[in-house]
Each structure stands twice: as C-alpha cells, then as structure tokens.
Design a protein that fits this description.
Rossmann fold, three-stranded mixed beta sheet, 14 helices, 9 strands, 13% strand, globular
Length: 299
C-alpha cells in the first residue's frame, strides 16, 4: 500500500479501544469512514474529520481496508456477513481486518466467505488494553495470506508496535487465545498474592514494590495490582470480555484434547463475577470474588 493518505480505511466498532485506534490512524494521515451502533463515539470522531455512515455496507463502499473491533463472534458475523454488512458493499480487492477476539474456526469461515467475493481477510486480534490502544503500542497477531499482511503492515503500524505474522487464517485468533490464557492466570495470581499479603498484615504498596521488581512481575501486577489495592475497578478490559475469551480457550482445549486446569479455574471464577453483575467492571474485579471466598478484604 503506497502513500498512507491514499488508503481509505473503514472502522467498525469504536468503543473503549476502537475509538483510540481509529483516532491514531487519523493522526497518521489516513482518511477514515466510521460506523458504530452507539452514535456518541462516531460523533466525536466525525468532529475530528472522520466520515460517519449508517451501516457497515456503506463503510465497505467507501474503503480500501475495513477494520472491525467488536465484541464477539456473532457481532463480527453480523457486521461482516449480515444484512447491510460489509460483504454487501464489498468489491474485489477490498481487505477486511478483524481485530476483535473470537475463535480460529470463525476466522477461517469468514476468510472463506469473503474470499468467494475476491475480498482478503486477516484475523488480527490485539493485546495491550486501553493503554496500548491510546498510545498506539498494541501487540498485533495476524493470520491470513502473507501478501495481504505485508500490504496492510503500514495500517497495523498506525495502531501497534509489535506486529507478528502468525500464519494461515485462524492463526491470529489461536495466538490471542494463548495470550488470554496467560492474562487470565496472571490476573488470578495478582489478586491471590495481594489477598495473601493482606492476610499477613503486609503493607500493600511495599508488596507491589517487591513483586514488580523481581521474578514475580507481570504486566498484570504492574498495571492492575495498584488498581486492586485502590479498589479501582474501572475497566481497561471488561471482565465479561475476558470470560468470553476464556470460553473460546476452553472450546479449543476440548477440541485439541488438552487439559488446561488453570484456565478452567479462572473461567469458573469469572462466571462468579457475572453472577455478581460485575461483568462491565475491569478484570481486576476478580479480587472481589476472592475477598468473598476469604470473608476478608484486601487492605
């Protein structure tokens, strides 16, 4: 893809992360057409110069590359393949990039259906949370045709820092599920270590200082540990979304006949978060479930 300004990008799904990603692409000089079910973020991007349309189909008609960043597989299929979806407005040569998280099977199915109309499809989920989206430092893992990946690399560079081609269609989603397995278990480790420290009467600020300076450190401890201590449960990534990702992890483990006891445990704990109606909170809300089991607070 030559000259960034000549490439027209469509963006579908401008929520917590999508809006920041779209904004970063505009800052890089790309012309954007945006669509979202709720209108407020669209209006904000429109005020910055993006074109706003009323359907994914119209996004496709006005774009060379279409990116979707929506919640789950049914949403991806609806905006790409449904009524007034991208497929209805697509033409040969269009490239569609799904940057949400779902499953390798869904990715391969969409790859085939779009391919029948001469449209390239890349599954390119991301990690890095709202901070990475805001700062343009996301890690992006990509599956699909290598030539399509190479062509879209400048677009990926507009929103991410570490961009890795993983292989054929579905490989990006498979990698994201591996990532979410580690994320989920790190979340549990962060919350459990702070609960144990609190029960032992340790100063939690000092605990975090030690944990984040040695072998125990993780992105989770550094970024979510202080939020747990401060009882700040605002979402950088929603608990309901991690539960959804873990559901795909469990499905893939069952298909491949492998035991993932850690993932299974965290999956059930996140089910408890949903039972407490806390799915819209950040993933660090897991601490509250552990507090409930222990009958004591982390303080």
């Amino acid at each position: 893809m030559s000259g960034k300004s000549s490439v027209r990008i469509g963006f579908i799904g401008v929520g917590i992360m999508g809006k920041q990603m779209a904004s970063n692409l505009m800052k890089k000089g790309y012309r954007l057409t945006v669509y979202n079910r709720s209108k407020k973020p669209v209006e904000e991007l429109h005020s910055l110069g993006a074109d706003a349309v009323d359907s994914p189909m119209e996004v496709a008609k006005n774009s060379d590359v279409v990116i979707d960043m929506v919640t789950d597989a049914p949403d991806v299929e609806a905006v790409l393949l449904g009524e007034k979806g991208v497929l209805e407005g697509a033409r040969p040569g269009l490239t569609v990039i799904d940057m949400s998280t779902n499953s390798p099977e869904i990715a391969r199915s969409i790859f085939s259906k779009l391919g029948n109309k001469g449209v390239d499809f890349l599954d390119a989920p991301v990690t890095g949370g709202d901070k990475g989206a805001r700062e343009g430092t996301l890690t992006i893992m990509v599956g699909g045709k290598r030539e399509a990946f190479d062509r879209c690399r400048p677009v990926f560079e507009g929103v991410g820092k570490e961009i890795v081609y993983m292989g054929d269609s579905g490989s990006g989603q498979a990698m994201k599920l591996c990532n979410q397995t580690a994320v989920a278990i790190h979340t549990l480790a962060t919350c459990e270590s702070l609960l144990l420290a609190s029960s032992a009467g340790l100063n939690l600020k000092d605990v975090l200082r030690v944990l984040t300076s040695g072998a125990a450190n993780s992105w989770n401890l550094t970024n979510l540990g202080p939020k747990v201590v401060a009882r700040d449960y605002e979402p950088g990534f929603k608990a309901a979304h991690l539960l959804k990702d873990l559901r795909y992890v469990i499905q893939l483990s069952e298909k491949n006949r492998i035991a993932l006891p850690g993932s299974s445990t965290v999956y059930q704990l996140f089910n408890s978060i949903m039972a407490e109606n806390d799915g819209e909170r950040g993933t660090q809300i897991l601490a509250k479930i552990l507090e409930k089991l222990a009958s004591r607070e982390i303080k």
